[in-house]
Backbone:
């Protein structure tokens, strides 16, 4: 029971703010006489898909010689196709607007079908060497199929997978912590990340302006900003000589992101711009003291954070959040 | 907690509920407005993004200032503990000031200063014991864990933070684990903690954040009991290994192992039963997690089938279970059975959906492709989402 809400409902009912029907329903929920299992059901479905794909992966990796490549490829294809056929049968007609899932299992069966398809493609590539030296293109195919499926069946989750798979095709891990942007061929990866990031941000803008799946905007924009700003930050922190150029580019990009997101009321994009600019500026503060220990850069970093804090308070006061 | 802060929290609780009612169209805009008028909350409450960013910037200010002082004072011996006490004290005073004002109490700054304040005090205390007093590492660790349990507990109570309460519980159980008969202490203290905290979950005189802290303590208590009785933990001396070097280990008698195995099987079911009966979803969720752990333990000792069979069957079983529960609830009169419904009720579905993207992308995204000009090597392909994760 939530005693504060229970008390409030009684008070609001007495003051005729709530009708008796409304009060009765809210009171049941506040008293825990009616409890939602929505989250638990979805968590179980997610765990089920995770275990199923892991089990199939293990089966193939341990027994592919005994079962035979054709049987494995055919079996996985059949399972994936069964999932996708079910999805096609259940899916509502296509529209450019947001469509609620027809049932709770829809998103997870779609996910399972697509993952099995991707696994099958990878297996076929390894066993039959279809693409040969250009084997990384299978990630492009998978990413494109994910993207198509995301639009066809209106899934933001699958769109997220599509964007990260396309990034993987270009050699970039979207989880920047894993360090792909700090690898030996970092320059090429950074360039890839910047191009992809810009493409994703453009896709976000187009989704909204053309009203084509406008609710995909945040998935496109967050993935794009993560790639774009991540690449620029890694350039600032990772480059030995040209870091100043990277910093200038980062500050311009972060400034643009902050300005545009402020006007559009998108606090998450604004926050990414602020964080990236702050991290980049730290190099400027610490670089002159690289060869000697000094308290000055720390004090300057603290002062910079005070400035950022003031900016945040001012922006929050004026921003009309969407 | 300040009386004022409790009143603000109670009002915020009602306004948040009203927001949920409005989100699903159960009340109209004028009604929500009337509720907001009836329960005024003077606090400025930015969204999570602003709060996290503010907390990060405040942490940067405090840590960079500390770094500047630390670099400046570095040559002086024993300068760190007083400096840490100074910073810890200042951060706690700052927290009190921030918490007192409705303009700053919920901006995220108070959370950062309180966390850093307690952190500085504990770290300073630890260094003081080892460096200044020359105390042995084990004694110092015990003292720091005791201080940590008390400090986080007090700060959780004072500033209404369930996270601090969780840190206090973790410190307490780590301390118990280092004592003789640590396993028995985990069992008894865990049961006592869960039992006592469960009685306060609906306590009207407590602030909402204190009730949430009580829920955290219930979960901590249950987990401690499970860790104490789990047969794998007993077999591998997981709790005994927390103790000081050379601490005596429990001699495993066959009857103790049997009891432990039975408890490993029964406890999750008991917790699930408690969760279902009390209709507390956090207890149900804890029960589900414990059940999974027990099944993993079972698989560790009893090889019923190859791992891939177990994983595939378990996955299929979970999917079938989830769909059966959903379908049964969906078809029941009023879409509910024993007070459970598959509907999200007043939860923010759009936000939940956005949050669901993260674990899916994290678990299933392909590993990045290596340089394009690299020769293809047979057998180097991978299995999983987009062709990644499991090597053939």
Residues:
């Amino acid at each position: 029971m939530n005693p504060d809400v229970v008390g409030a409902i009684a008070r609001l009912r007495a003051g005729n703010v709530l009708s008796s029907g409304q009060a009765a329903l809210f009171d049941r929920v506040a008293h825990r006489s009616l409890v939602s299992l929505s989250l638990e059901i979805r968590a179980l479905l997610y765990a089920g898909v995770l275990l199923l794909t892991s089990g199939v992966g293990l089966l193939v990796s341990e027994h592919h010689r005994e079962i035979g490549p054709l049987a494995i490829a055919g079996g996985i294809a059949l399972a994936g196709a069964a999932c996708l056929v079910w999805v096609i049968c259940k899916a509502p007609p296509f529209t450019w607007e947001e469509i609620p899932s027809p049932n709770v299992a829809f998103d997870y069966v779609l996910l399972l079908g697509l993952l099995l398809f991707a696994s099958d493609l990878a297996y076929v590539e390894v066993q039959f060497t279809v693409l040969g030296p250009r084997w990384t293109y299978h990630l492009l195919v998978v990413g494109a199929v994910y993207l198509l499926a995301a639009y066809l069946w209106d899934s933001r989750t699958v769109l997220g997978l599509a964007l990260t798979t396309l990034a993987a095709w270009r050699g970039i891990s979207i989880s920047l912590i894993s360090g792909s942007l700090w690898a030996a061929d970092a320059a090429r990866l950074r360039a890839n990340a910047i191009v992809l990031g810009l493409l994703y941000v453009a896709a976000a803008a187009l989704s909204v302006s053309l009203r084509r799946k406008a609710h995909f905007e945040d998935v496109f924009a967050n993935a794009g900003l993560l790639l774009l700003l991540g690449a620029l930050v890694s350039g600032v922190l990772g480059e030995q000589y040209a870091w100043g150029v990277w910093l200038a580019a980062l500050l311009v990009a972060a400034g643009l992101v902050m300005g545009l997101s402020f006007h559009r009321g998108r606090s998450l994009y604004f926050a990414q711009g602020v964080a990236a600019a702050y991290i980049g500026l730290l190099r400027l503060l610490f670089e002159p003291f690289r060869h000697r220990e000094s308290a000055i850069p720390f004090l300057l970093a603290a002062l910079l954070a005070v400035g950022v804090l003031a900016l945040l308070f001012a922006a929050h006061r004026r921003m009309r959040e969407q | 907690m300040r009386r004022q802060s409790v009143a603000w929290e109670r009002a915020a609780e009602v306004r948040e509920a009203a927001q949920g009612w409005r989100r699903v169209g159960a009340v109209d805009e004028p009604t929500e407005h009337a509720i907001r008028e009836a329960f005024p909350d003077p606090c400025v409450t930015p969204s999570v993004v602003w709060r996290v960013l503010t907390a990060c910037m405040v942490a940067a200010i405090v840590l960079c200032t500390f770094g500047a002082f630390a670099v400046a004072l570095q040559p002086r011996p024993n300068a760190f503990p007083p400096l840490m006490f100074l910073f810890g004290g200042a951060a706690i005073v700052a927290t009190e000031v921030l918490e007192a004002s409705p303009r700053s109490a919920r901006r995220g700054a108070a959370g950062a200063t309180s966390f850093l304040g307690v952190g500085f005090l504990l770290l300073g205390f630890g260094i003081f014991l080892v460096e200044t007093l020359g105390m042995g590492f084990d004694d110092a660790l015990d003292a720091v864990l005791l201080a940590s349990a008390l400090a986080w507990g007090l700060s959780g109570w004072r500033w209404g933070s369930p996270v601090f309460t969780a840190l206090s519980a973790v410190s307490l159980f780590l301390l118990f684990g280092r004592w003789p008969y640590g396993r028995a202490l985990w069992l008894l203290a865990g049961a006592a903690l869960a039992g006592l905290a469960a009685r306060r979950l609906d306590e009207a005189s407590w602030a909402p954040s204190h009730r949430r802290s009580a829920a955290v303590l219930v979960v901590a208590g249950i987990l401690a009991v499970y860790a104490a009785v789990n047969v794998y933990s007993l077999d591998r001396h997981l709790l005994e290994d927390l103790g000081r070097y050379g601490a005596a280990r429990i001699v495993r008698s066959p009857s103790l192992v049997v009891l432990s195995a039975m408890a490993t099987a029964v406890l999750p079911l008991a917790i699930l039963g408690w969760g279902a009966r009390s209709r507390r979803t956090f207890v149900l969720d804890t029960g589900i997690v414990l059940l999974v752990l027990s099944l993993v333990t079972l698989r560790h000792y009893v090889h019923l089938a190859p791992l891939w069979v177990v994983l595939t069957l378990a996955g299929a079983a979970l999917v079938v279970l989830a769909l059966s529960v959903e379908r049964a609830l969906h078809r029941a009169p009023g879409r509910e059975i024993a007070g459970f419904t598959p509907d999200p009720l007043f939860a923010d579905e759009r936000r939940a959906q956005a949050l669901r993207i993260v674990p899916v992308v994290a678990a299933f995204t392909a590993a990045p492709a290596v340089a394009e000009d690299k020769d293809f090597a047979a057998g180097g392909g991978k299995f999983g989402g987009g062709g990644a994760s499991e090597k053939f």
Notes: Chain A touches chain B through 118 residues (CB under 8 Å). Residues 178-322 of chain A form one domain. Residues 157 and 235 of chain A are 30 Å apart (CA to CA). Chain A has a mean pLDDT of 90.
